[in-house]
Protein: Sigma-54-dependent Fis family transcriptional regulator
Organism: Roseivirga misakiensis
Amino acid sequence: MEKELGKILIIDDDEDVLIAAKLLLKKHAKEVIIEKNPKKIPFLMNNGTYDVILLDMNFSKDITSGKEGFYWLEQILDADPQAVVILITAFGDVEMAVKALKEGATDFVLKPWQNEKLIGTLSAAIKLKQSYKEVNKLKSAKKQLEDDINKPFKDILGESPAMKNVFSIIDKVAGTDANVLILGENGTGKELVARAIHQRSLRKENVFVGVDMGAITETLFESELFGHKKGAFTDAKEDRAGRFEVATGGSLFLDEIGNLGMPLQSKLLSVLQQRQVTRIGSNKSVDIDIRLICATNMPVYDMVAENTFRQDLLYRINTVELHLPPLRERQDDVNLLAEHFVKVYCEKYRKPPKKIAASTLKKMAKYPWPGNIRELQHAIERAIIMSEGNILMPDDFFFLVQKTDGNTEASDNLNLDDVEKNVILKAVNKHSGNISKAAKELGLTRASLYRRLEKHGL
């Protein structure tokens, strides 16, 4: 038990007791402080912190009742409500011990004490002190999380008129159970809006379940959404609840709902109308209670006209529609978002704080951002990783590099390096910064394209 007892304060009017305790405990504690005069307790408490305090219950004024010990216990706890105090006396009994514990003492020992028992008591008290610290830490973290959650639209940044309109709609619809359809291009933050609606709803204490409908194959659709019984098909090795059952009591977010084929749309509509699901392999229906939020980047109204999306399903899911503007329609927010992502990725990659040059911000404001916020986020992340200076210049963003006009300078310049650089820029811009797609079009591997990007300082 090496130095595990931390910092100990011992207060007793018997000098022999103090010396004996210090000799015993200094082998096991980081520091042992002894004090004969209890009137120095306020000074000691104001000028130090202790892992455990050993306090005599009886001083010169009153030999046996323990009143002085209770008085000084109160003073200690007033100074530090989380203090771990062990009371010691030669005249202890059960009644006094119970009273001491009720008054806030952690434990109670009799003197003369048994060395092993005293050390064991102190060790347990130290662990209790550590648990107090952990509880306080968790409480602080919980409060911070609650404060963050209660901040309006904490994850959605925007001060433009278009985003203020989005916030207004969220405020109006969140407190209801109305179905919401979020429309917007890829990368505009549809899932963030869905989560914001859930967090401000009456269901916020319950689960938010997100499902990417575009990633679910037709064969897995019913199993994923409605669940299955053990043995219902080859890989069904146990009973499994579907996403609808899991989301009961909370919110179900169906992302990219426009990607569903007509047969699956019919099955989904049936569940939404009946508010029941039946697991594959079961004849028993299960009631569901969900708040439905859907999203898509597809032109669903055109799809209805083309008979590729059911009109009755559209009516069922769009009690309230919310249109998320693309980033090019909220250019006022580009600087705000860019500075936010710079801070995020500097912290993530342990980089010194960086700033964005005014010339870079100016070019960013003119760029159309076809990939929306997601493209901006990825561009900032790459710039933070690759840039060497503390100021992000236009050259740190390959898509902001001055492009050549059609058949003029580009056609006249036959330098192979310049031609290669321009072709790479064109491919990367065409695919909104998606390296995999750009590499495929160029006939390169991702690694080869990255090497060329490095070569040309892109």
Q: What stands out?
A: Residues 327-401 form a domain with the Helicase, Ruva Protein; domain 3 fold (CATH 1.10.8.60). Confidence is low (pLDDT under 50) at residues 402-411. The chain has 19 helices and 16 strands. The CA atoms of residues 280 and 398 lie 51 Å apart.
